[in-house]
Amino acid sequence: MNRKKLDPDSSPQAEFGAHLRKVREEQGLTQEEVADRAGFSSSHMSAVETARKKPTLQVARLVDRALGTGDMFERRWRQMSNGGVLEGSPQYIGHEAKAAEIRVFEVSVIPGLLQTPQYAAVIAQSEVKRGAITSAQAEERLALLAGRQASLNRLPSPLVVAVLDEACLRRPLGGPEVMNAQLDKLIEFAEMPNTHLQIAPFTMGERRPFDLPVYLLTLPDRTVLSYAESAHQGHLERDITFVLPKLTAYHQLQAEALSQAESVAMIRDLRKGSTP
């Protein structure tokens, strides 16, 4: 029997199909048996499981009913299709939740893992006003972000390293109250035992090695992954040939950036300057 190898990192629907296969096999069921319980053809079941067809909300609900998984697959479908997140992002988030080390560089906004709820809400609502996402998608995005932040409380705690371009601090979002709370959050982050925060000042100029956000994950088995986003999709890279140069450049970025003490001092000065 031919068994198609699934790569859950290749697309959100591939991740859906891979998880469907995993749960089905754990229950000792064939594709035909699940399809019969769900009320659709085994060929459709196979197409969804192998990512040849994108699942619908109805299919996700029928699969949940057939496998007795509550709303597990419905929630996965909503995250994949209606969550207002970029393609590739769910795969990154899944690895982030297990990573031993997380390295982030951001160029214009505070990275999600360090955002206050108010700051995150301002960004989400701005996209709603532009018509980029719906209000429901904004709510789902904020819930997803809260889940990502909560996962950092796991034991053992991951090392989280964040280098922020100075623009992240100086770009006002939501007014003084929101920004003051966000700056306070950054200071609190820097004081945690498993974190490191640095600012890449404007004076770095051309010595800053990145012009776009960079995300690097070190998994428990020491595999290193990188993630990058364009305006329309995200891409998770695991080929060490492409990942290693980014890791090297990240270390160069840290060497050129302000120390954590200097970075916190800059944040405190900005905090004082923005206080009425």
UniProtKB/TrEMBL annotation:
<dbReference type="Pfam" id="PF13560">
    <property type="entry name" value="HTH_31"/>
</dbReference>
<protein>
    <submittedName>
        <fullName>Helix-turn-helix transcriptional regulator</fullName>
    </submittedName>
</protein>
<dbReference type="Pfam" id="PF19054">
    <property type="entry name" value="DUF5753"/>
</dbReference>
<feature type="domain" description="HTH cro/C1-type">
    <location>
        <begin position="20"/>
        <end position="73"/>
    </location>
</feature>
<dbReference type="InterPro" id="IPR010982">
    <property type="entry name" value="Lambda_DNA-bd_dom_sf"/>
</dbReference>
<dbReference type="InterPro" id="IPR043917">
    <property type="entry name" value="DUF5753"/>
</dbReference>
<dbReference type="InterPro" id="IPR001387">
    <property type="entry name" value="Cro/C1-type_HTH"/>
</dbReference>
<dbReference type="GO" id="GO:0003677">
    <property type="term" value="F:DNA binding"/>
</dbReference>
